[in-house]
């Protein structure tokens, strides 16, 4: 098994499928090469009802994806790919065995896509990385890559989404849908052939619980230093709030929440890791904050995915000029403050994400694109430019003789040891 928990044979197959120009449909086709499907589709299962399955899905596929499926020899891979497309297009197959297989392939494909993402990261081209992350979202939500993000809401089908979106050439995100005035939104969504009043209420209720992390500020720093110099250990700090689509009465950002305060040099508890946080109060004074328990986000709302799944957020930097990865992803699964209160309402707490990497070896201004991607929901990614300013090494603070740290006496050493 690989570290992504897929068979080495599958990882090797996926490696051979990689291409710098690989598209989302190509990735779905590539995932069908996983050897894990062999144990699921043993014996006659690999061929049984294949014609019936393909008859239901072929008209849902693009010409390119249809050709990729039809070019495969019969057997496990072709059946797995057919079931995967049936799952992503939410096709009712009117066959108990096929329907069961349709839901069974998704977690297998998800694990394989984790391995494929690692391969994309190793090659370092941004486009395949973003495409593979997008496929993870599609698998969790059971939505074809080119379909509307509105399908993440209950009762909304592709046909209903088309009615809601009208003549728009781009799909409507859940956030933009929820920004439509209530009366207009209801008019678009409720009616004959659309949603009933109760179904609409349920769909809106789900939208208002989706944890959409919106970035308020992103910056770079070196702990305890005024300047970032070549080769130093840089902290990338991302500040943001979870603001579910359709949220009202969102409080203004408190500017103090956007600061990242270093502990005082004589704060032994912080230095020794007994307490990790310091904040400023309304008077601008540094005050200690006891470390809170890590907060797990709500399980993803993913009724078609046959597993409970806890969302993850990936943050990485890319070089837009070269289309290459600059700083590999850091993954966040927990947060430092509650996302929703006991009443189920969003708290709008300012969350802090931190990642560390080594500064470039040369001084200069480095402009990156920061990507913040949630692997469980579509249309909620953040993409923004950030600039890292690396100063000449001579800018580093020179320690004056009176600033030299004196050796602690024996009593102080004994106190630190305890």
SSE topology:
Layout: H1 8-17, H2 24-31, H3 36-40, H4 50-57, H5 63-71, H6 76-88, H7 96-123, H8 126-141, H9 158-165, H10 174-179, H11 182-189, H12 197-207, E1 213-221, E2 233-242, H13 268-271, E3 277-280, E4 286-289, E5 313-319, E6 324-332, E7 350-358, E8 364-374, E9 382-390, H14 410-417
Antiparallel strand pairs: 1-2, 2-7, 3-4, 5-6, 5-8, 8-9
What average pLDDT do the residues reach? 89
Total number of beta strands? 9
Coarse shape: globular
Supply the CATH architecture of the largest domain.
Sandwich
Give the percentage of residues in beta strands.
15-25%
Structural class category: alpha+beta
As residue ranges, the low-confidence spans are 271-275, 399-403
Total individual domains: 3
| N-end to C-end Cα span | 44 Å
**Sequence of secondary-structure elements:** HHHHHHHHHHHHEEHEEEEEEEH
Q: Looking at this structure, what is the CATH superfamily of the largest domain?
A: C2 domain
Give the key terms.
418 residues; 34% helix; globular; four-stranded antiparallel β-sheet; Immunoglobulin-like; single chain; Sec63 N-terminal domain-like fold; 9 strands; three-stranded antiparallel β-sheet
